[in-house]
Amino acid sequence: MFQSPLTVGIDIGHHSIKAVVLSQKKSQLALSAFAEVVPPAPILNDQHTVDPEGLLSAIRQIRKSLPRAARRAILALPDSAVISKVIQLDTNLTDEEAEFAVTQALSASSPFPVDELRLDFYPAVSPGLSEMGTTAPYQVFAARKTTLDPRITALKKAGLRPAIMELQTHALLWLADFTAEQLGLSGQWGVVDIGQRLTEFAVCPAGGSAYHREIAWGLGQPVAAQGAETPALTLLSPEQSETQTKQLADQLRRQLQLYNSTHAAAPLEGVWLCGGGQHVVSETLLERLLGLEVQWLNPFRCLPSGKRLGEIAGEHTYSQYAVATGLALRGVAS
């Protein structure tokens, strides 16, 4: 099947909008472009609802830095904005009957009226296994129309073609898997995405489903990224950086204890850090405090690019592009 040679991953965050474009020619995958726009006012609130006009303006601005042919877009929603359930369905249902059954199941458990939701579902086991019984588990995802639709509308108005809506955790894990494969790494690694308000901790245990926790800790103030159209903030002193790193370590210790208590067969060997904290959090101190290997995850490390773009991408870690890169990888694989 023909696949678009250019795929755009778009990360809509509280502080900025980020986009990463990947190109594909046969088995070769390369970085074609990346860009970040910081809107003059926040376009995302705590209920995950966007300001449609603000988002449209930011997307139109970011498109100016992308190849004109880059139109196929992959988006993500925060995990906390998505209802995720596993339900049992009869294996002999038609597609229409299965959709009705899923709708009925959601109507009994959703905090929102089911007609306010958009939903997706698929078998949680392979077809061969599901035929062994009269019922089979189905993974169900649902999100409010008021959360999802304005994002889709803004991208379409900006000339993009939204193709997939993913979970943010899945985007991070796609990038982690790709990086580990490219670097030939083995063992179980987690991903810690440091945000301004929240931090995400995600792991995909071998043979298991994605493990995700949202941590109520963030950097507390926007940190200007390289290339962002905002003046750089004053760098933190070593003492301030140490304080922030110790606070993050305290939060992560609790999450690591919880993970290890429920996944003793898949212990972590290390964690990758990403997000906007590369100028705030010390990986060497965090490594010592956690007793685990800690590395900043450079999403462009394993993606070749042209000489000019490669020189730019190689100047910094650019870990704030992790979600957008993971989404672009997800689009290439679809």
TrEMBL record:
Signal sequence, start to end? none
Gene3D superfamilies for this protein: 3.30.1490.300, 3.30.420.40
Could you name the domain of life of the organism this protein comes from? Answer: Bacteria
What the entry lists under InterPro entries is as follows:
ATPase_NBD, FtsA/MreB, PilM
PANTHER family in alphabetical order:
CELL DIVISION PROTEIN FTSA-RELATED (PTHR32432), ETHANOLAMINE UTILIZATION PROTEIN EUTJ (PTHR32432:SF3)
What is the protein's name according to its record?
A: Pilus assembly protein PilM
